Amino acid sequence: MTRPEGSDEFLAGYTRILADVCATGRRLTRDELEALRGQGERAAEAGHGLRTLIRRHLAETRAFAPDLAAAGVDRVLAAVEQAVDAFAEGHERAQKFAMRQEEADRREFIDDLLYGRSDLGRLAERAERYGLLFSRAHAVAVAQGARPVDDTHPATRDVETSLLGRFGDRRILLTTKDGRLVCVAPGDQDDVLAFFAKHAYAATDGGRVAIGRSHPGAGGVVHSYEEALNALELADRLELGEPMLRAADLLVYPVLTRDRQAMADLVQDTLGPLKGARGGPRPLLDTLTAYFDAGCTAAEAARRLSLSVRAFTYRLERIHQLTGADPADPVHRYRLQTAVIGARLLGWPDTEV
């Protein structure tokens, strides 16, 4: 008897096993089951879908049904169930292995991309597989919540679903790294990163998002990613309240700290005398911080510190007495404000500089 049209090498031996099992009433042997699993694995590796293959097994069974009829329906169905189950197990096993391998390859690519550890030419070839073209500039946004996230976290799925629903097949790469959500998008598509920031903020229960500047090439992705991470670190150190930060808006801070020793000297020379105040330098440093954050408006700064305007003004006068710099004087104000920024960046007075 000939096989029905559509059967292939992945059904080899199936009807022979079926006929022998039905004739003897035995169960499939361990070797037969493993052979069927192996066929399922090879079929999956060749790209054949399980649904089509199961249909071919059933068609093969139906074609040989007259020869199997004597065994009885129950025995035939039991044999088919065993055989098809073993074949499907092998197919699923190969699929799971392929998925794990795909995820491992993707994770390796992400690590190489964000840390710049691979040959740029090879990295560019691999990037196309994930929708990135290094002939274009790219920018990176990083979202950090109170709790770390990974690729299986609900926040990751929510943001990915929102991005796909809004932008479809645009060349966007969404991933996670070190517990943070990361989005890589073409540098001229700021709407993508702004949309990511909005949804990542919501998905991480009010986390903070930083967006690096756009840079060309594979190295540009690393550069933008590092800018976003630095912006998040700056936001923590400076206690910035904004939920979304742009590295371009924070460039003044890396400039101020480029010469760390000079900044440390400025902090020590300008604010060091505050250590002589009753209660230490912290209350007066907080006074200056609130004053500058409030646009040098004493009434607003006093409200933020829950002080009366009179008490706040007294503190400003005390700062003037100790440091010789008047916060109300434009010339002195710049020096004091720069020193306050430096103190926040360097962790003074909790850390000696």
TrEMBL record:
**For this UniProt entry, which residues form the secretion signal?**
none
Task: Describe the location of the CdaR GGDEF-like domain by residue ranges.
Answer: 116-234
Could you name the domain of life of the organism this protein comes from?
Bacteria
Q: Which residues form the PucR C-terminal helix-turn-helix domain?
A: 284-340
Report the InterPro entries cross-referenced here.
Answer: CdaR-like_regulators, CdaR_GGDEF, PucR_C-HTH_dom, PucR_C-HTH_sf
According to its UniProt record, what is one Pfam family this protein matches? HTH_30
Q: Which family does it belong to?
A: Belongs to the CdaR family.
Any idea what this protein is called?
A: Helix-turn-helix domain-containing protein
Higher taxonomy: Bacteria, Bacillati, Actinomycetota, Actinomycetes, Kitasatosporales
